[in-house]
Amino acid sequence: LDGKGDFAQYLSLLGIDFYPSTEPKTERTHRTEIHVAEPSVEFHEARVTLAQLEREAAGCQRCSLASERSHIVFGSGDAQAKLMFIGEGPGAQEDQQGQPFVGKAGQLLNAIIQAMGLERNKVYITNIVKCRPPENRDPKPGEMEACSLYLHQQIELIKPTVIVALGRVAAQFLLKSGEPLARLRHTIHQLNDHSKLVVTYHPAYLLRSPDQKRKSWDDLKQVITLLGNRS
Ligand code: SF4
């Protein structure tokens, strides 16, 4: 799926012209370094289902983001997905609908998923925080820590083969790193015993900076390869 034809399809879906890649063939070698992230919180020991966890989150007041939300945006997709996308937090349309990535950035994410040869309902999509930060600001560290109770249980229940961190905020939080996004890309991170993590640009950023879409495809090719190599 990482051939020239799929690249052309990806660029076409994302609205940019195709030209053949001139990247050196050694690139993949440079992108297979494994970095082991430190676990950030203790996981719940209780064995709960994803649906039970969502019901548990429904009335959550663990942080101040609860006060202005219309709906909690817990996550959506396949509870047994091999691929999980994690953004930073819901926006206005997500807050209204209670679903992740339903605005323009969501439409671009849909195109990305399609270009990868996958279906949205076969992957799982969520955010670091489940309630909308006001004015679409970045979630604060305390808010992300409070909400990580749910995120880490989602990861433990779904056990995806690959997690894609969408954007700097999600990547830095998941990897407990202060490194810039540019340094967190180009590495396949080992998040835990069962999930590798790949970092790429947030779709909202790609809408503002479409020239970065080609770089995002480099990251997504790594994801496709990892999914293809699962046993
Ligand atoms: S953002 Fe997370 S921790 Fe904060 S109120 Fe919403 S669900 Fe609870």
Could you please describe the fold and organization of this structure?
The structure is a single chain. With 231 residues, this protein is an alpha/beta fold. 40% of the residues lie in helices and 12% in strands. It is built from 10 helices and 7 strands. It has helices at residues 4-13, 27-30, 50-57, 92-97, 104-115, 141-158, 168-175, 181-184, 203-208, 213-229; strands spanning 34-36, 76-77, 83-87, 124-127, 162-166, 188-190, 196-200. A 7-stranded mixed β-sheet has the order 1-6-7-5-3-4-2, with helices on both faces. β6 and β7 (196-200) form a beta hairpin. α1 (4-13) packs antiparallel against α5 and α3 (50-57) runs antiparallel to α6. The longest helix is centred in the middle third of the chain and has 18 residues, at 141-158. Bound molecules: iron/sulfur cluster (SF4).
